Every structure is written in C-alpha cells, then in structure tokens.
UniProtKB/TrEMBL annotation:
Its EC number is 3.1.26.4. This is Ribonuclease HII. Its cofactor is Mg(2+); Mn(2+). Endonuclease that specifically degrades the RNA of RNA-DNA hybrids. It catalyses: Endonucleolytic cleavage to 5'-phosphomonoester. It comes from Salicibibacter cibi. GO terms for cellular component: cytoplasm; ribonuclease H2 complex. The gene is rnhB. Keywords: Cytoplasm, Endonuclease, Hydrolase, Manganese, Metal-binding, Nuclease. GO terms for molecular function: manganese ion binding; RNA binding; RNA-DNA hybrid ribonuclease activity. Residues 236-256 are annotated as: Disordered. One of its GO terms (biological process) is mismatch repair. It is found in: Cytoplasm.
Length: 256
C-alpha cells in the first residue's frame, strides 16, 4: 500500500513519469484518501483515456486505408505542402509505415504543434520508408502550382526505397502505373497520408529556415514563404529573390 509518508509531489512525479506505473501501484493509490492524491488520479485517468482514444484513432486510420487494397499490400501515403506561399518549393512526401509502428495522436500536420510535428517526424524518419520530392519555384512558374505539386509527389514516390503496391493520396491522382486512391481530406483519414503531411511540412519548414540565412529581410524562418505583412514589405523594399514565384500575383506586382 502507498504510505502517506510519500508526499503528493513524489506521487505526482511517479504518476506522470515517462515509464508508466504498474496497475498494482495505481490500485493501491486509489485507497489513499488525500484530496491531492485523488485529484492527481482524476488527471491520470483523463490522460489514459485520451491516450486510448488516440491509439484507437490511429488504428482506425490504418484499418481504413487497408480497405483500398489487399491486406498484405505496401501502402504509401502521399501529401504535399507549400502550394500557397509566394516563395520556396512545393514539397511532397511519400511514406510507407511499418505494420508494427503505432503513432497515437498522429493527424493532419496543420492540427499539430511544431513540437508535435518534430516528434512525429523523428519517429517516422527512424522507422518508415520515406521519399521526398520537390518542385522548384521555376517549375511552378513554368507549369503552374497544381502540376508542380503532382511532379513533386511523383518524385517522392520515385525516391522510396521500396516500390509500393498501392498509393493513397490527398485529393489527387498521379500518372503512375501503381493502383491508387485519392482521398479528400486524406490527412485526417489515412495514417500514411498524415505521416506524409508531417514529413513534408517539417522538411519544407526546415528548408525555408535555411533560406532565411541567405535572405533574412523576408523572414522566411517565420512565414515559410507565405505573404505576411513583413514579407510583402520586404518585397516592396528589396524586390523578389530567385526563390520567389514570379507567376504569383503579389510577386508579379512587386518585380524589381
């Protein structure tokens, strides 16, 4: 039994440690009548319930994407980021998740914090088959952003270590000889697409931070190339860089 000589602070530290306490210890703790301990247990139970829901959601997303192919198929989720910015590439990722990998809480990268994206990115990069593809601002200007996004996605598939048996793609089809399923809002339905959205987002954001070192006036490290007030003011002062998309209206009107 948990002794009352054990402080509430000590119990809190053990209860919310990275290594989950044993069920026997939790059951003993429930007999502790101190209000502070009972409040901690309420928080603990809520945390466990939230984690359970996240695990179930992830498993449901994996099960949903499996309905589009045979059970043993290698499924690659594909997504892109960077259609809207005024500068920088459009970046796509293709991800084949291992069957054994579970990523509770994984969802559309836009719904995650920067820290959450980084944590998921590290887990995905360490365990999954990941391909990255980009299309440059010059390509975007030449063939338009939609076609450039498709090109980036195809390049991402081509850089996978293994050929996938099926593609699940966020609201797009690709001219590839691989069975595929486009899903509207796929990054909220398919775990593989959600993983691809995280990888693409972190990859592109990291690249834009390196561009900031070359073009600090535009604050690419803060806006990732989107048309913020500070970005537009820098365009007015400095004109566009080689990384700007000259086919995009806000850049066209500010050509040096």
């Amino acid at each position: 039994m948990v002794r009352k000589s054990v402080s509430i602070a000590q119990i809190k530290s053990h209860l919310f440690a990275e290594n989950r306490p044993s069920d026997d210890w939790i059951n003993e703790l429930r007999a502790d009548e101190r209000k502070g301990v009972q409040h901690l247990l309420v928080r603990y139970d809520r945390m466990c319930e939230r984690e359970f829901r996240q695990i179930q959601q992830f498993r449901d997303m994996r099960a949903y994407e499996k309905t589009f192919s045979v059970p043993s198929a290698q499924i690659a989720g594909i997504d892109e980021v960077g259609r809207g910015p005024l500068a920088g590439p459009v970046t796509a990722a293709a991800v084949i998740l291992p069957v054994s990998l579970e990523l509770p809480g994984l969802t559309d990268s836009k719904k995650l914090t920067a820290d959450q994206r980084e944590q998921f990115y590290e887990a995905i990069a360490a365990a999954a088959d990941v391909g990255i593809g980009t299309a440059t601002p010059e390509e975007i200007d030449e063939i338009n952003i939609y076609q450039a996004s498709r090109r980036a996605m195809m390049r991402a598939v081509e850089t996978l270590a293994n050929r996938p048996d099926h593609l699940v793609i966020d609201a797009m089809e690709l001219p590839l000889d691989i069975p595929q399923t486009p899903l509207i809002k796929g990054d909220s339905k398919s775990a593989s697409i959600a993983a691809a959205s995280v990888v693409a987002k972190v990859t592109r954001d990291t690249y834009m931070k390196t561009l900031h070192e070359h073009y600090p006036a535009y604050r690419f490290n803060e806006n990732a190339g989107y048309g913020t007030k500070a970005h537009l003011e820098a365009l007015d002062r400095e004109g566009p860089t080689p990384e700007h998309r000259r086919s995009f209206q806000p850049v066209i009107t500010r050509e040096a």
